[in-house]
UniProtKB/TrEMBL annotation:
Taxonomic source organism: Chionis minor
Compartmental location: Membrane
GO CC term (a single one): extracellular space
Keywords: Acetylation, Membrane, Transmembrane, Transmembrane helix
Name of the molecule in the record: CC033 protein
Record carries keyword Acetylation: yes
Topology term for the membrane: Single-pass membrane protein
Main location per the UniProt record: membrane
Length: 192
């Protein structure tokens, strides 16, 4: 029932057990998502506690994801201010939390943003900070993230998009010095 206003307020036991917390999204920044923690509410106790709850935002980073240029814009389009999200604690580094971020899509469906970004080709799989490299959970999550990245690669999406044969030929033709000289000559003829 305690509201966490800083990453340092979260007990180490919560991080070791990979507890899921609920929060309200406030901002999306270069450093991560700024989220206000929403504690578990018990009707009578919550109304008394709310007067003494600290104010502050948690910095939540997408664990195992290195965002590409379009990733930030995609997050800003997909996530709305004040939207409720779930974040599973995987580690804590200074004042930031490394988490799996889950967003509800409909009544019974939730989407893991970490995987979805990789599936869209808007980032690369990276080392999951905060988890021990030899733990079973680390490899389970890393495998999920790599599968999502592979799906984007196979579907030619995002950063994995390759130019088609005709696009490559057109670029080579337009960059050819002989073609550029012909264009300059033609424009000179038109002007005179």
């Amino acid at each position: 029932t305690t509201k966490f206003a800083s990453a340092l307020d979260i007990p180490v036991g919560f991080i070791e057990k990979n507890v899921k917390l609920r929060g309200k999204l406030h901002h999306i920044t270069e450093k991560g998502l700024e989220v206000e923690h929403i504690p578990i509410s018990i009707p009578f106790i919550t109304s008394l506690q709310s007067k003494w709850q600290p104010q502050g935002l948690l910095l939540v980073r997408l664990a195992g994801v290195e965002l590409a240029a379009g990733g930030m814009a995609w997050l800003q389009r997909e996530l709305k201010p004040k939207q409720v999200i779930w974040f599973q604690l995987l580690g804590r580094e200074d004042l930031a939390l490394e988490c799996l971020v889950l967003v509800n899509k409909g009544r019974f469906l939730s989407v893991c943003l970490n995987e979805e970004i990789l599936r869209q080709g808007l980032g690369r799989a990276a080392r999951i900070e905060g988890l021990h490299h030899d733990s079973r959970l680390y490899w389970k999550l890393h495998k999920r993230l790599l599968r999502a990245e592979l799906r984007a690669l196979k579907k030619n999406k995002g950063i994995w998009r390759e130019e088609s044969y005709s696009e490559r030929i057109r670029d080579r033709m337009s960059n050819n010095k002989f073609v550029q000289t012909l264009k300059q000559f033609a424009s000179w003829l038109r002007s005179s």
